[in-house]
Task: inverse folding
């Protein structure tokens, strides 16, 4: 998001990754009727909010302004949204309590890292991003454990939340080591080095959104006979 | 901020990213395979 608008390979990948957000939103619009009665509607709202952030981020880039504060703000959005989503999706009361505890602890740590350690909200905060990734990875793992433990879903490949879980686990785990050094990468004078590693994040953003779109596409099957009675 | 060696950081990112790729794909595969087997046992599908 913070890279220059000059048309290079990395900027092309960045454009593609940003524009790929249109795909799950379009799928959400097509499947809108099927999203109404389940948690998938929250995914659609989250994607729309993300689109607003992307538009504002690009507006900053076009004007040559620093937009890292948006990246830091998105960290809170991600933690709060995925906590809400998995809190509603998980059945076990213990898992729900774990999600609430993780949400509070990670939000406090991220806030502390932004305002007490780094003190510069315009710098991309690696601690915040790492804590966010670990928190969301743990939610996805809890959900996968629940899937195997409860066996309420007959056909996993048709279950939208399984696809969303895949998108979440793949994106937040693979991007973890890139984001640990996000601060270093974005402020590195060696642009080749910075681009080489930021590319990984952009590719993953693209695939993350494609998999989310697949999840939203299967929203119809959630309302049919895929869920067994408990 | 402590100055860190660029090559060390490159290695950490590359090894870490590869490890996380293996981790996530393994988890997804295990969940899918295990779930399919258990659901076959439960429903005889």
Result:
């Amino acid at each position: 998001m913070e890279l220059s608008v000059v048309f290079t390979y990395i900027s092309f990948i960045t454009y593609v990754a940003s524009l790929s957000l249109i795909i799950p939103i379009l799928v959400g619009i097509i499947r809108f009727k099927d999203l109404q009665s389940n948690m998938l509607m929250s995914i659609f709202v989250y994607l729309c909010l993300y689109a607003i952030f992307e538009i504002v981020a690009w507006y900053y880039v076009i004007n040559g302004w620093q937009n890292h504060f948006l990246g830091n703000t998105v960290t809170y959005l991600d933690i709060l949204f995925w906590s809400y989503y998995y809190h509603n999706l998980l059945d076990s009361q213990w898992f729900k309590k774990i999600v609430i505890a993780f949400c509070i602890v990670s939000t406090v740590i991220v806030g502390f890292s932004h305002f007490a350690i780094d003190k510069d909200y315009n710098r991309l905060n690696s601690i915040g991003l790492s804590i966010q990734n670990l928190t969301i990875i743990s939610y996805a793992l809890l959900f996968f454990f629940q899937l195997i433990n409860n066996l309420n879903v007959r056909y996993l490949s048709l279950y939208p939340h399984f696809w969303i879980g895949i998108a979440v686990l793949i994106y937040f785990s693979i991007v973890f080591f890139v984001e640990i050094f996000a601060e270093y990468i974005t402020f590195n004078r060696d642009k080749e080095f910075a681009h080489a590693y930021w590319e990984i994040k952009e590719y993953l953003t693209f695939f993350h959104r494609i998999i989310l779109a697949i999840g939203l596409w299967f929203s119809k099957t959630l309302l049919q006979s895929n869920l067994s009675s408990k | 901020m402590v100055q860190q060696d660029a090559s060390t950081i490159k290695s950490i990112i590359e090894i870490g990213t590869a490890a996380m790729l293996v981790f996530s794909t393994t988890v997804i595969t295990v969940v899918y395979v295990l779930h399919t087997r258990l659901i076959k046992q439960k429903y005889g599908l």
User: Anything to note?
Assistant: The helical segments of chain B are 6-43. Chain B touches chain A through 26 residues (CB under 8 Å). The radius of gyration of chain B is 19 Å.
